[in-house]
TrEMBL record:
The protein, known as: Ribosomal lysine N-methyltransferase 4
Ranges for region Disordered: 464-486
Family statement drawn from the similarity comment of this UniProt entry: Belongs to the class V-like SAM-binding methyltransferase superfamily. Histone-lysine methyltransferase family. SETD6 subfamily.
Domain annotation SET: ranges: 34-277
EC class name: transferase
Compositional bias (Polar residues): 472-486
GO molecular function: protein-lysine N-methyltransferase activity
Gene Ontology annotations of biological process type: methylation
Known role: S-adenosyl-L-methionine-dependent protein-lysine N-methyltransferase that monomethylates 60S ribosomal protein L42.
UniProt KW keywords: Methyltransferase, Nucleus, S-adenosyl-L-methionine, Transferase
């Protein structure tokens, strides 16, 4: 959901949408249902959206876009015009699409996708574009370490910049700079690359490919947890806003087409929503540049390894210096941090604590003799939760709470003030970003507070008793899964 200031020509907002639909409709093979329309939703801080003109049935086709019209590396002419064939092929799916989009964007009206670019935002609230002071509003949130801006810029300057600079006719300099050399040229090129990377992150869809093709992601715009399939910018599909609760449409990949279909009845006047899946608001902000309360149930908090080691009395979190950690590292069960989801009313601690975290807590509470026994068997302890592990993990939770600069209660007061300011008009710029950061850290602090209370109850009610995982092979499954990811 984009703010109105994110679009380059807000005064011609609706005209651009009309021109885009006219351009798309005349493309061979495109099918757009007369039951939908693109609507100006800037008054709701949602940019454009797609709304039902009339009743739509479950399973009904909303639109179909031929694969040949999708903005992809394969469909652009750039691959045939570049002399640096090998360098281009070595870019991987993310950087190659980024380069293609820079090329097509700089072509302006000469690009086959010029009308498409005019309806895409040029400014973003994704974390890649936040200042240091704005990022500081996220406090101890682990999402700050997932931004990857430095790594992204290193990849851009090392792999994309040489190709751009060597081909000025394919990548004409923007107004105001003679070339992409020098400090000014480098700055503009990085801005262009970040803009395209953010468009890919926020709007691109995974495009199916043969199963035997695998590619690595690029730092800053894809993480280990995210899909590494090639991406494609699908005209019209990316104009749908997303909503976890009101999701009523889904994109299907069919032979020769990408088809958006209703997945439930949609009433006249209702907005048509895609869904990003069950992702926490921190990742919603990082990847898409906004947060909504609908994604609060999917919030998570991370317990860093160094925090757990600190409360356990270890001098460091270095496996080479700590035999307990070395045992788990050798078994591929040691992580830098452990993700804990927001507990539901029915969840117990063993429902939400990862197996690897329980194994770590158990290992850190072993006596020296017990540790030697586990080392001799080359096996981790079973994932059980007894009072010693619960006490250790509660201390880690409380230390994590202390790493945030404000309390949950203070944040709730800050958020109330920002919401009050919002009554006179949508927040823009730093105030908008501050509000989103406060919402993210409130979610994380709510989880930490709930965890601490759950540990207190467990310690009081289960002293001397263990809560064992039902599946003893769960750690082995985790180890195998990790092995497949690396």
């Amino acid at each position: 959901m984009s703010s109105s200031v994110h679009f380059p020509d807000a005064d011609n907002f609706q005209r651009q949408a009309d021109e885009f639909l006219a351009w798309l409709s005349q493309k061979p093979g495109v099918r757009i249902s007369p039951k939908i329309q693109v609507t100006d939703l800037r008054g709701q801080a949602a940019g454009r959206g797609v709304v039902a003109r009339t009743e739509i049935s479950d399973g009904e086709e909303l639109f179909a876009i031929p694969r040949t019209i999708v903005l992809t590396v394969q469909n652009s002419n750039l691959k045939d015009q570049l002399p640096q064939k090998e360098e281009f092929e070595n870019l991987g799916p993310w950087l190659s699409l980024m380069l293609v989009m820079i090329h097509e964007y700089l072509l302006g009206e000469r690009s086959a996708w010029s009308a498409y670019f005019r309806v895409l935002p040029t400014r973003f609230d994704t974390l890649m574009f936040w200042s240091e002071s704005e990022l500081a509003e996220l406090q101890a949130s682990a999402v700050v370490d997932k931004i990857g801006k430095q790594g992204a810029e290193e990849s851009i300057l090392e792999m994309i910049a040489p190709i751009v600079r060597a081909n000025p006719t394919l990548f004409p300099p923007v107004a105001g700079i003679p070339s992409y050399n020098g400090p000014d040229g480098e700055r503009v090129l990085l801005e262009l690359a970040h803009m395209m990377g953010s468009l890919i992150m926020a709007y691109a869809f995974d495009i199916e490919k043969p199963e035997d093709e695998e590619d690595d992601g690029e730092d800053g715009y894809v993480t280990d947890e995210e899909d590494e399939l090639p991406k494609g910018m699908v005209p019209l599909a990316d104009l749908l806003n997303a909503d976890a609760d009101r999701n009523n449409a889904r994109l299907f990949q069919e032979e020769g087409f990408l088809v958006m279909k209703a997945i439930k009845p949609i009433h006249q006047g209702e907005e048509i929503f895609n869904d990003y899946g069950q992702i926490p608001r921190s990742d919603l902000l990082r990847r898409y540049g906004y947060v909504t309360e609908n994604y609060a149930p999917y919030d998570v908090v991370e317990l860093p390894l160094d925090v757990i080691c600190s409360v356990a009395g270890l001098a460091s979190a270095d496996p080479d210096a700590q035999p307990q950690l070395k045992l788990l590292e050798d078994l591929e069960l040691l992580d830098d941090g452990y993700i804990i989801p927001r507990p539901s009313a029915e969840d117990s601690l063993t429902d939400i604590l990862p197996d690897e975290l329980l194994a770590l807590a158990k290992t850190l509470t072993l006596t020296p003799e017990q540790l030697l026994q586990q080392q001799s068997k080359n096996k981790p302890p079973k994932p059980v939760l007894n009072a010693p592990e619960a006490i250790l993990l509660q201390k880690a939770v409380q230390k994590r709470q202390s790493q945030y600069a404000t309390t949950l209660e203070q944040d709730q007061q800050i958020l109330a003030g920002l919401k009050q300011a919002e009554t006179s008009g949508p927040l823009e710029g730093s105030p908008r970003r501050q509000k989103m950061a406060v919402e993210v850290r409130i979610g994380e602090k709510e989880i930490l507070q709930r965890l601490s209370a759950m540990f207190s109850d467990f310690i009081a009610n289960n002293a001397g008793q263990g809560a064992k995982r039902s599946a003893d092979n769960s750690l082995e499954q985790s180890r195998q899964a990790k092995s497949l990811r690396t």
